[in-house]
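This part of the workshop introduces the protein records we will be handling. A record pairs a protein's sequence with a compact description of its fold. Backbone structure tokens are a discrete shorthand for how the chain folds in space. The question running through the whole workshop is how a given chain folds. The record below serves as our worked example for the rest of this section.
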Amino acid sequence: MVKRLVRVALLAFCAVIFLQPTFGQAVSVSVSFGPPALPVYDLPVCPGDGYLWTPGYWAWDPDYGYYWVPGTWIMAPEPGFLWTPGYWGWGDGGYFWHEGYWGPHVGFYGGINYGFGYFGVGFGGGMWAGNVFRYNTAVLHIDTTIVHNTYIDRTVIRDVTVNHVSYNGGEGGIEAHPNADEQRYAQEQHRPPSSEQQQHAQTARGNPAMRASQNHGAPEIAATSKPGEFSGGGVVKAREAGAPYKEPANAPHGGGEAAHANAGATEHANGEAGAEHANPTDAKDLPSHTVTQPNTGNPKQDKQYLQQQQKLADKQNLEHQKLQQQQEKEHQTATQKNYTPQQTQKLEQKHAQQTQKLEQQHTQQAQKLQARQTPKRPQ
């Protein structure tokens, strides 16, 4: 009982988990200290027509603290939709994450200057002209030999002091409030981040180099040309941290009572095993696959898409289970045969390769399903 109370007290001090799934509102996480400054990086070139830029941001993991989710180019879910970035905002004694969303207008994103068209209010990187997106090359990196729907408008570039602050309100935060238009946009129909965006964020979570505790605010992978592609020519490294980063004394480091307390809170909130590790080396460390409620405006089609997602998630979770059973059996054999440290290390490397290969396959499967479920653009 005493141990349980200690865990609860530590959890309240470091981070508290809530379950409030609503777009553009405070969701999921409250942290007692703000995220690092936004890193300074260059924009990767747009991979092709129809891709929209979504800026990078600091996300939170209860075991490892803040980690960077690289900015990336994403296909819009349908013509006419724009991306409103998420943001951290101070309120009720903590920093809350406000989820980003897709919609017909760009709403309030905390006044945060994410750059590349997202200068704190609205979006100056381009506009829809019917079913075609036109890119403003004054702020976006576009290869005009590939993408021809471009224009130049430098008036959207706001003359502001760039301080790279990544949160709204609180000590040192951006002082901004929604204007009348942004309040109205908040009432429009929105769509949550796509499954590609969610997988992209999950990949970032699983990479230790993305943690602020390791990269000190300047991640090696600051932006990517496509979601989930964390290697190759489309990866952009941060030029520098947005500000000197000093990790708070109460930041989690993946162990100890605080980390276990946070994991327990995640288990309670999500109804899952709460044993997700940011660097999975065994199948038992992999999070369960879940589904995202489609919102095409067609209930019959939404039901069909949801069934397809559930079928894939069930298949992938079964593959997790089979690999976990196989790896646990091999661990038992290693114990019975008293493996040497070298043999044990070789086994662990094998398991890590198996686990990463399986998760890469699952990511590709989810992306293919997402592509099939994305409405086709009229020619």
